[in-house]
Every structure is written in structure tokens, then in C-alpha cells.
Write a structure and sequence with these properties.
By secondary structure, this protein is an all-alpha fold. The protein has helices spanning about 5-15, 20-35, 40-50, 55-65, 70-80, 85-95, 100-110, 115-125, 130-160, 170-180, 190-205, 210-230.
Amino acid sequence: MTAATEKSVYLRGLRAGAPFVIVVVPFSLLFGVAATDAGLTLGQAMGFTVLVIAGASQFAALQMMVDQAGIAFVLLAALAVNLRMAMYSAALVPHIGAAPLWQRACVAYLLFDQTYLASVKAYEEEPDLTLRQKVAFFFGVATPITPVWCAMTAVGVLVGATIPEAAALDFALPITFLAMVAPMLRTSAHLAAAATSVVVALALSGLPSGFGLLIAAACAMAVGVLVEDRV
């Protein structure tokens, strides 16, 4: 494969990731504001967001810190919310599991909802992509999202107090997931899994720290497999 081909695939990944910036901006701003309200300094908030790069688990851990929970419970909450990354990793192994160690380490660091869903969609639609092309596409998706996430977190910390509540920054998270998931609902198995996740998540919404979402995810996968086998 030529370097030009890899570059073109990388640029396609970049274009696939660019639209997510629209919702990453308010979401990361919101985390910066929340971090300031929780008493974190700029350095602490940036260390948090640069090391983790996982919005939902960052908010879960931050809320536990605000509630003055012990460090073990803070870590458990973040881990519980982020367990979906284990499912993401398992799904990516057939595609990029043979990549060099340093590339897999970078993929692990940059693995979040947007990079996973955009990449898997591309891999399914283009099964002839080579290993190097798949890695290039993944990094392309991450390129516009990651620096914006970190930069806008800093902006949220620095100017959070001046952002009016009417801005409703918290709209970003549900819109992000709708934009990512909706195009992937193409089969009856997908639809059954999505419906199951909605019903179970709402039924278990009272559970703490996102545990209801984890149970809903497991139920959705089970239903999706059952429907797929019967079709």
C-alpha cells in the first residue's frame, strides 16, 4: 500500500470525526464548568480530562467527589461507567488487533464513543480495508475530537462562571449519542437491541453511578444476538 492511500484513508477518518466537534465543544465546556464548581483547579481539571478522555466517566467520578465519596468509590464509579470500553475493545480486536503495540496503545488511549462507532461503521462498510488503513482511519477520527475536548475543557474552567444557565450545555450528550447510533440501526437485530436498551435503562434509572446503563447494555447485546440467530 502506498503512503498516499494511507493518507487518503486518514483524511476520510478526519472528515468522519469532524462533525462530532459540534457536540464535543459544549460537552467539554460543561465538564470544565462542573470541575470548577467542584473546586478543581485548572491543572487538576486538565489532568483529569487529558488522562481519562471519557466524558461520562469523568462526570460520574466528579459527582462522587462532590459527594465526598472515598477514592475507592470514585474509581469504581468511573470504572463502572467506562466498562463499555471493554466491549468496544473486544469488537475492535478482529480489525486492528494485529497492529503494532505502540499503535494499539494509542488506540486504547483514544478509544471513546465517537472513535469506536465511526470506525466500526467504516470497517463494516469497507471490509477490504487493510490493517494499516483501518488504523489510519481510527486516528483520523480522533484527530479533530481529542484536542477540541481538551482545549474546551480549559475554556470551561477559565470562563465557566460567565456562561449563562440558559445556554443548556448539557444537551450535547444525548445529541451526540443520537447522531452516532441512529445511522447504525439497519437490521432487526439492531432495532431490537436498541429498544431493549431503552426500556431496561429507563426501568433501572434509579440505580447509582450508571449501573443501570451497564445492565441495559448487557441485555441489549443478548437480545441482539438472539434476534440475529433467528433471522
